[in-house]
Write a structure and sequence with these properties.
The protein has 399 residues and is of the alpha/beta class. Helix content is 43%, strand content 17%. A 7-stranded parallel β-sheet has the order 3-2-1-4-5-6-7, sandwiched between helices. It has a 6-stranded parallel β-sheet with strand order 10-9-8-11-12-13, with helices on both faces. The longest helix has 20 residues.
Length: 399
């Protein structure tokens, strides 16, 4: 059996990159030959050297690792489309294709390819699209992105063989929109726990990242890694952290590794709250170093992203957070209560409930034994709920 996963990600960084890699490992474990094809953006030489043999990049690598402008990314996506078309023409005996991002042009090429060759066409939808929710679109690129979403929803999704969704919100939404469409819930995050434990032994201080020495601090460390495209949950955390740092005189470090979004906006908010001296921002690291980083922190923050966005998606870091064996501080959103249980493997509060959130935060700072208790239970949850070998069976069952 043979399959192709099509992505538009900054591989190997980010939750979607990790998800695609776990898919590949799961398929290979079940004797399925798999290829991952990255249409865009151009990879850095560093990314190319740290990618697996089953990864193919449509575009040549660049020696510079800088954030590209939207118009440049659009150009790279167009070039990637031509490469994708050539790649598909050379593929024979493929049984299925999974698309991971709603792109009308990529979707059209894959739909034609799959229908012509009688191949299963799957779409894995990880969240609601922010472009359709934002009322204002101030740029031409933004307008094209919104149009892309509308066309993809109208012309591609109804014609896929199976729509996989990560949340009950998306499942209910698309069952109403497309009552005849085959829709399945999939695991929102996947973990290879044995590999995770092995990666915990990696030396993070060989990274030579500016600020990495913060992990040698003797202070309690509170950590978040992920997106800041929707800052409401992150700002809520910072506001409550300020109460404990400034007003109650607790001493701890806040460490961020922000992958997507406006990092400058978060830094500015820290300045507004007068807590910048307590906050360290680090550049993204390769996924293999994340388990080792978790070894050096005490509390993991899981903020919601927006409102509709938060409930439609599912935080991809959840599996890693649980596997780390560290205490998790979160609000209740999406389907998190299916896996996180208050005072068992995490500390939870309702969105906007500052009093309970601060109370939970304070308890985690003070009570080390309780943090360890939550962490032990968290590891068991990760192994039981998010094992990559079991999660991939939901896709294989549709073949």
């Amino acid at each position: 059996m043979k399959g192709i996963i099509i992505g538009e990600v900054n591989y190997p960084i980010g939750s979607m990159s990790i998800r695609m890699r776990m898919w590949a490992k799961g398929f290979i474990k079940n004797n399925v030959h798999i290829k991952i094809y990255i249409v865009a953006p151009r990879p850095s030489m560093h990314a190319l050297k740290n990618s697996e043999e089953y990864i193919t990049f449509a575009l040549s690598a660049t020696s510079r690792n800088i954030k590209i402008k939207p118009i440049v990314y659009l150009y790279q996506r167009i070039l990637g489309l031509f490469s994708l078309y050539k790649f598909l023409r050379q593929e024979n005996n493929t049984n299925f294709v999974i698309i991971t991002r709603p792109n009308i042009l990529i979707g059209s090429i894959l739909l034609f390819f799959c229908k012509k060759n009688k191949i299963n066409f799957f779409f894995d939808k990880g969240d609601e699209n922010a472009r359709l929710i934002d009322k204002k679109t101030n740029t031409f690129i933004g307008y094209l992105a919104k149009l892309n979403q509308v066309f993809f929803n109208k012309y591609i999704i109804p014609k896929v063989d199976v729509l996989f969704v990560v949340s009950s919100y998306l499942e209910n939404k698309y069952k109403i929109l497309y009552p005849k469409l085959r829709i399945r819930r999939c695991l929102p995050t996947l973990i290879d726990y044995s590999e995770f434990v092995q990666n915990q032994k990696n030396n993070i201080f060989e990274l030579q990242h500016k600020g990495i020495e913060i992990f040698k601090s003797m202070k309690l460390k509170v950590f978040y890694a992920g997106s800041c495209e929707r800052t409401n949950g992150l700002f809520f955390f910072l506001e409550n952290a300020t109460k404990l740092l400034i007003h109650e005189r607790f001493s701890f470090e806040i460490i961020f590794i922000l992958v997507d979004g406006d990092t400058a906006l978060v830094k500015k908010y820290c300045e507004k709250l007068s807590i910048s001296e307590h906050v360290t921002f680090l550049n993204p690291v390769l996924p293999k170093y994340m388990p080792a980083i978790y070894n050096f922190v005490d509390i993991l923050v899981l903020p919601e992203q927006g409102t509709i966005i938060a409930n439609a998606g599912f935080p991809g870091k959840t599996g890693e957070y649980l596997a780390s064996g560290k205490a998790i501080l979160s609000t209740i959103f999406s389907d998190l209560p299916d896996h996180l249980i208050n005072e068992h493997n995490a500390m939870l509060s309702d969105i906007g409930d500052s009093e309970t959130y601060t109370k939970n935060f304070r308890r985690l700072i003070i009570d080390e034994e309780f943090r360890l208790f939550l962490g032990r239970n968290a590891i068991e949850t990760a192994k039981k709920d998010f094992d990559y070998k079991q999660g991939i069976l939901r896709y294989i069952e549709e073949l």
